[in-house]
Amino acid sequence: MENAGLHTLASLPVTTALTASAQTAVTDLDSMTATTIEAVLQYGSGGTSIDAVVQTSFDGGTVWLDVARFSFTTASATKVANLSGLLSKAVTTYAALSGEGVLDGVLGDRLRAIVTSVGTYAETTLAVRAAVR
Amino acid sequence: MTNWADTPAGMIDRLDEALSRRGEDAILRRVVGTSNQQFVDVAIRVMIQETTPEPMTPGGAVTQDRSMIILSPTQIDAAGWPGGVPPNFIGDPRVPLKGYQMIARGRARNIETVTAKVRGGTLVRLELTVAG
Fold first, then answer.
1. How far apart are CA A121 and CA A12, in angstroms?
2. Chain A with chain B: Cβ pairs closer than 8 A
3. Is residue B51 over pLDDT 80?
4. CB-CB contact of A52 with A113 (8 Å)
5. What is the dihedral of CA A44, A74, B81, A87, to 10 degrees?
6. ipTM of the complex
């Protein structure tokens, strides 16, 4: 495990609408076996919805797969999820997460966050952190 | 064994050694937001050069300390600080911006200016002016 520890996948103010804004990836996560993800929205005012999707990749960052999706609206909230790469998992057809939830048992060697928002927020910040093991 | 090579790696190695011997611990903080702030921190080793206090108003009694702080990119790289940044982020995200903070000697200091020393295309040293 080259880069175990706490990583910030996203930390940004949310103002005008964002369309699948891909934050820079955290790489060098070879042999990642599990990750606990925390998404924190500190809400100010305005806006409609914010979605933070955490993704992983198996081909060096060309194709990304959704592994967790956190949804927020107009209130401060802290949401957490845990993902394990050691699960026994039957053959599954991949589908992007259409709503809040996780795709467990699927971890590559890197993570990134994609942020989408609707409406215009003010004094609002979003942070997504991953504790990688 | 000190790396005396005249290369970016050698420069970084010598700076790291000096900071290890004569530096002190601090936290570099990226501040996100204005009223509802979130922080991205990294523990680093720095060298602080205090300067003389400056009056907040001409002839005033209330002063603000200004310091120069030297740090290496080594711990920043190891931690992957500041992590994911938006696609429209301009410049090297490892280089702190005005408005970030340095927490050292028990207090948070605002970063005023940043000089990023780049040699051979590699970031080898950061010099910050901080106030507070």
1. 12
2. 75
3. no
4. yes
5. 160
6. 0.84
